[in-house]
């Protein structure tokens, strides 16, 4: 049984039904790992869909990169390719 924060109500815990953590670091590590796996899966799916729709990617850019000059906050100018 655990007691909910800010409440007098106790709730039974079923170890087989959920994951429980005794510290934030373990929970953080698990959530970061699960998030990484989900992002990788989404990227792989997006890449597969793009390849299916547009063919295999090429190493060369599909459009010409145009150089332009931007004014930086400190007053210097920088040339960037868009």
Mean of residue pLDDT values: 84
- Biggest sheet, spatial arrangement of strands: 1-2
N→C terminal distance:
59 Å
Net shape: elongated
Major sheet details? 2 strands, antiparallel
As a whole number of angstroms, the C-alpha radius of gyration is 25 Å
> How many helices does DSSP assign?
1
Domain module tally = 1
Give a count of the beta strands, DSSP E runs of length 2 or more. Answer: 4
Low-pLDDT regions: none
SSE succession:
EEHEE
Structural class: alpha+beta
Helix proportion range: 25-40%
Strand content: 15-25%
Summarize, please.
The protein is 38% helix and 17% strand.
Explain what the structure shows.
It is a single chain. This protein is of the alpha+beta class and 82 residues long. It has one domain (24-81). The chain contains one helix and four strands, in the order ββαββ. The chain has one helix at residues 24-54; strands at residues 2-3, 10-11, 67-71, 77-81. The chain has a two-stranded antiparallel sheet. Strands 3-4 form a two-stranded antiparallel sheet. It is elongated, with a radius of gyration of 25 Å.
Main traits of this protein?
single chain; 82 residues; alpha+beta; two-stranded antiparallel ribbon; elongated
Task: Map the helices and strands.
Layout: E1 2-3, E2 10-11, H1 24-54, E3 67-71, E4 77-81
Antiparallel strand pairs: 1-2, 3-4
